[in-house]
Amino acid sequence: MRALALLAAALPLAAQEPLRLEEVLDSVDRHYPPLLAALQDRVLATADVLAATGRFDLSIRSGYEGDYLGKYRNDVYKAGIEQATQFQGMTYFAGYQLGRGSFASYDGKQQTDLGGEYRAGVKLPVFRDRAIDTRRADLQKALIGRRIADLGVDQQRLVILQLAMRRYYEWLAAGQRYNVARAVLQVAEQRDGQLREAVRLGQIPAVDVTDNQRAILTRRALLIEAERALQQAAIELSLFYRDASGAPVLPGAERLPASFPAPRDIDGQRLQDDIELALKRRPEIRRFREQRNQVEVDRKLAQNQLLPNVDVSVSFASQLGERRVGRGPNDLVAALVFDLPAQRRAAKGRDLAALARIEQFDQRERFARDQVEAEVRDAYSALKTAYERARVLREEVEVARQLEVAERVRFELGEGNLFLVNLREQATYETELREVAALTEYYRALALYEFAIGEAISRPRKP
After folding, report:
1. N or C: which end of the chain has fewer CB within 10 A?
2. What domains are there in the chain, each with its CATH number?
């Protein structure tokens, strides 16, 4: 653009490295508050996993019981531990009991030898709670919930990075419009002295100076508008571009890149590959899948409740010290417990509800896949169209410049007039603005396309 040749004069500021898009995106990953807030969802989900794991914590129990006023005076001390496991619903237990004094015959198991009684054993469900139980189900759902939280963060990150890209290119476009307005103003200002000299020599009428003054004032007003638009774009970009402390940074005009990156055409053969890539990457599709997995856990738990409750336990007890009781000194006790609700309607209801929710998530996932495919196709179409429009406007700018130069030469040779020169300059200015708008639209479409295919998922997040 003509503005590039006059950039140094237009912006006499300290030279700095141009602000790159990667800097903005890295700043978003490190310091953007909404994204940092979203990351706490991962912490919350990890806390849920820790809480669910806590249901398998080692349980320690102890107690004392004494009878002081009754016929039988005695003291009983008890202590024990219990450890639930994730393997087949098995539970281990062990304990110690010391019973001293006199006991009624029906409380004979409370009495021990002088050294007390040690007991250890294992409890194993045979049918219900064997493959899954509420503790293991809660843990499985918490683990899936952590994956869902990760996908939720990825989804928010996709949206935020796309918005950051748009704000960056809008700031760049505002800078380009400012430079175009500054350049066309400088052309009129530089011509003012030449026209005044030509009037003094009697080569042109004085009205040409007045007409050029009108053009200068009009272009100054346009420059003021462009400067305000640049300031506004910088303010909006500063919400995403932050310093090490997380405070917004207003990027100055001296950090504007010289031009937009060269737009690139997109190969039509890429479309189908990118659709498949998007279906694998997009978090909302994977999120529906994980939510379905959570409901699958609920259904397995409901089906578990339909089974009979048959528990087998085996324990070994040993009496120590001077003999005081008739049992023992070693005992091996096996127990079998059976329990089955006759109708099991609660479990059947939960199973039916889980099946319905699974069907819901299947349909939502199906529609989400259709939506993603439609978004990729639409974004591809928008990107292709924006590229073609930018390419045509590039050619139009070149033609407009040629006409402007030709009209200026005719004026300098005395064959034209200043009015036509101003018209050609105005036409070039408007065409350059349209080219900036086309390039802006191209990069907006590029940001939308990268969002549609989940490109940010492949971009590692900076810590």
Report:
1. C
2. 2-38+135-306+345-458 (1.20.1600.10)
